[in-house]
Design goal:
Layout: H1 8-25, H2 31-47, H3 59-73, H4 78-90, H5 97-104, H6 106-120, H7 131-141, H8 144-160, H9 167-187, H10 191-205, H11 207-219, H12 221-241, E1 246-252, H13 255-265, E2 276-282, H14 289-303, E3 305-306, E4 312-313, E5 326-332, E6 336-344, H15 345-353, H16 369-383, H17 388-392, E7 403-407, E8 413-417, H18 422-429, H19 431-435, E9 437-442, E10 445-447, E11 459-463, H20 480-511, H21 518-527, H22 533-542, H23 547-566, H24 573-579, H25 582-589, E12 595-597, E13 606-608, E14 620-624, E15 630-634, H26 640-646, E16 651-656, E17 664-673, H27 678-688, E18 693-702, E19 705-714, H28 717-728, E20 733-738
Parallel strand pairs: 2-6, 12-16, 13-15
Antiparallel strand pairs: 1-2, 3-5, 4-5, 5-6, 7-8, 9-10, 9-11, 14-15, 14-16, 17-19, 17-20, 18-19
Helix pairs in contact: 1-3, 2-4, 3-4, 3-8, 4-6, 5-6, 6-8, 8-9, 8-10, 9-10, 10-11, 11-13, 12-14, 20-22, 20-23, 21-23
Length: about 750
């Protein structure tokens, strides 16, 4: 091996790691494998292609440290160790994946490819605090063993940077571990790795606090040990008397865990009551695990008073990551609460070392996609007879197979559904970027709008101010966000074009002194084959139809209406008024002519407006509709202001004849307490009135109030006002008013 690449101390360390690794693996790593791996690494070192990492560490030392940590913390596995060592030379392109497959097998080649893909993510300088980064990490890994290797590699790195000169790099590594890798280790049941990562993360990010807690723990160690011995002694005697085989010991919580409790409880180290836990580890066959754990529980709770609120039964229902144990908190000597953990030797091996924890648990509800994925493989793993590492080779990390994760050139990471296109990505960033998108560059190559993205792509969007969305874009995108934005922009463009078309038509009508009537326009729109006025005006604004053709169709429509209504060539007086110019109509509307309406009035074509339902006695006005009918509105009608402002030339003064005759419909709204009998009392009053009939009633009750709508037949406003007063006197009625 080229010793130029290695410093003297590194050569010593390398030999030490080599001996340690061989001693751990034993016969799992044949001499032929060792020789070929050494040759591959030596060739790469001689060729000068190996590079130190950002911390200045030798990659071969790092790989050997990671392999040793894997054997120590998880399990000794030939393929995983070989993949760790070979990935160092594969990553720099010194050895091809096909050669790895030929010499060391498909499984090793797959692992090396997974490691290289995951490490390549860091070239994007993406923020690991993004939840999308964690998901992409799992997607890229493909094999769960790659995730375990990444966790162990971070463990080896954290051990190596204790005295590194770059405080910035150390803090970055600590943050990354705390946010990403420690939680992932927890989810996989690798508790020993998780605890060590968290402790070192605290040490590097807040060394003062870490040192303070460690110092206080050390100062109180002797006192704590005496207390543990006194607490354990009587329990030990009783357990032995029951014939149980067991180990019992006290264990202080991790420094990181203590720090978390100090933050939550705002306490000092001395004030944390569960600073340590007593652990009883029972040695028994698997079929006796639960009975013997519960027997130990009964012994402990018989000797010390338990706190039922702090019982944690992960024996009956294990955690999603496979953790099994029985936790109780009891009131011990010196009036102190003490946590006692009861588990078997098998459970302790999982909890302590995390060894295959994720394939040994029983069924529970999944909380998210990672839990769901682990649940799917659970039954296969439990039923298998081979070792856990052998089984893991058959699993794909397809937790997020329905999503793709892509980078921007700056390293920002975005999540999109599977099948998303470059255009989807553009709209996901910003609506303006989406609407002006003309294409993009994906991994340095020009791509069209319909290019389907792949996880890990680096995407740069190209835009043009002249670009506008088209309806064809709706068939390109798959995300609802992009579809909605495209539809909104298309609608906005249609409305803009429609406003332009309407303005164009109004100007032409004004020039030719033609009245612009909305109702007649609607009929013209239908006759010209358009579904609605928006499409019609939009077509007019965009030049699809010619404005003169619309004018001709409009005049023809008016002629048809008049001929149909009068039955001859003679035009009625009302229709004549409608066709006058606005100036002439305004003079007529202000004249002293008054239309008189009533039950016995003949010869006047009028209708009572449904929007306000006027009755005899109301202050009213007439509105000459496009059909030539005079519609009678109340002066306080909700539509009165709009009619007066827009159609002043079509208004006509109106009054009732001297005597009421017909029965009119009036709507009353009643609000009151939802008491039994209140509706009966109201209807009773109405029935007693000779000139009033109840046509319909609807009641809605909510939060102790009822809201009633009554439609009554009544002769005039005087009778209506008297009825309102009488209903107002009913007990429980809060408000009665006529519907406007």
């Amino acid at each position: 091996m080229n010793e130029v690449f290695f410093e003297k101390e590194e050569i010593k360390e390398l030999r030490c790691l080599h001996r340690k690794l061989l001693g751990t693996l034993g016969d799992q790593l044949p001499r032929a494998d060792i020789r070929e791996i050494k040759n591959a690494i030596a060739d790469a070192a001689t060729a000068g292609v190996l590079e130190r990492d950002r911390f200045g560490f030798n990659p071969i030392i790092t790989a050997m440290s990671t392999a040793c940590a894997l054997c120590e913390s998880v399990d000794a596995d030939r393929n995983m160790v070989v993949a760790i060592l070979l990935s160092t030379v594969s990553r720099v392109g010194h050895i091809d994946n096909s050669i790895i497959k030929e010499r060391w097998g498909d499984d090793v080649a797959k692992l090396v490819g997974g490691i290289d893909k995951v490490i390549s993510l860091y070239k994007h300088n993406a923020s690991v605090e993004s939840d999308n980064f964690r998901k992409l990490l799992l997607t890229f890994a493909e094999d769960i063993r790659v995730i375990i290797i990444m966790l162990v590699s971070r463990l080896a790195l954290m051990r190596a940077i204790n005295h590194h000169p770059s405080e910035k790099l150390v803090r970055e590594a600590a943050y990354e571990v705390n946010y990403l890798y420690a939680p992932l280790a927890h989810r996989l049941g690798l508790y020993a790795i998780k605890s060590e990562l968290e402790d070192m993360s605290l040490k590097y990010s807040n060394r003062e606090m870490y040192s303070r807690i460690a110092r206080e723990l050390n100062e109180t160690k002797a006192k704590r040990d005496r207390y543990i011995d006194d607490f354990i002694a009587p329990i030990k005697a009783r357990l032995e008397a029951e014939g149980l085989k067991f180990d019992i010991k006290g264990r202080t919580k991790s420094i990181y865990s203590i720090w978390n409790k100090m933050k939550k409880q705002h306490n000092t180290v001395e004030d944390i009551y569960d600073l340590f836990a007593i652990r009883i580890v029972i040695d028994c066959p698997i079929e006796r695990e639960k009975p013997e754990c519960w027997l130990a529980y009964s012994i402990v709770t018989d000797m010390y008073r338990p706190n039922p609120g702090r019982l944690k039964d992960w024996l009956s229902i294990p955690k999603s990551n496979g953790y099994e144990s029985l936790h109780i908190t009891v009131y011990g000597p010196e009036e102190r609460w003490v946590e006692v953990q009861i588990r078997t030797r098998r459970m302790d091996a999982i909890a302590e070392k995390g060894l295959a924890a994720h394939w040994k648990y029983k069924g529970i509800k999944s909380e998210n996609s990672l839990d769901a994925w682990m649940s799917n493989v659970r039954d296969i793993l439990e039923a298998a007879h081979t070792g856990p590492m052998e089984l893991m080779r058959n699993f794909k990390m397809d937790v997020y197979a329905q999503e793709v994760f892509v980078f921007t050139p700056k390293g920002d990471l975005y999540k999109l559904p599977i099948g998303a296109t470059l255009l989807d990505f553009a709209f996901n960033i910003h609506t303006k970027i989406g609407t002006q998108c003309v294409g993009g560059r994906v991994n340095g190559r020009n791509r069209k709008l319909n290019y389907r993205l792949v996880s890990g792509d680096t995407v740069e969007i190209l835009t043009s101010p002249q670009q506008e969305p088209s309806r064809d874009w709706l068939s390109i995108v798959v995300t609802s966000k992009a579809k909605n934005k495209i539809r909104a922009v298309l609608k906005e463009n249609e409305n803009r074009s429609a406003d332009l078309g309407k303005e164009l038509l109004q100007r032409r009508f004004k020039n030719r002194k033609i009245e612009f009537d909305e109702a007649t326009i609607s009929k013209t729109v239908t006759r010209m084959g358009y579904k609605n006025t928006i499409d019609f005006f939009s077509a007019l604004g965009s030049g699809e139809i010619e404005v003169n053709a619309v004018v001709d169709a409009y005049l023809e429509c008016i002629a048809r209406q008049i001929k149909a209504e009068v039955g001859s060539e003679r035009v009625s007086a009302a229709e004549y008024m409608m066709m006058q110019s606005e100036e002439e109509a305004a003079v007529d509307a202000g004249s002293s002519d008054i239309v008189v309406i009533g039950d016995n009035i003949k010869g006047i074509n009028y209708r009572l407006a449904r929007c306000c339902n006027p009755i005899y006695g109301d202050d009213v006005f007439g509105f000459i509709s496009s059909e030539g009918v005079i519609k009678i509105h109340r002066s306080d009608c909700p539509n009165a202001a709009h009619i007066r402002s827009k159609y002043a030339y079509r208004l006509i003064r109106t009054r009732w004849s001297g005597k009421a005759g017909a029965e009119f419909a009036a709507t009353l709204r009643v609000v009151g307490k939802d008491d039994i009998g209140i509706v009966t009392n109201i209807t009773s009053i109405i029935n007693k009135e000779k000139s009033v009939t109840l046509r319909s009633i609807s009641i809605d009750s909510n939060d102790g109030l009822f809201h009633g709508t009554l439609v009554v037949g009544i002769s005039d406003t005087i009778a209506l006002n008297q009825l309102i007063k009488k209903i107002s006197t009913v007990k429980g009625v809060k408000n009665v008013q006529r519907n406007k």
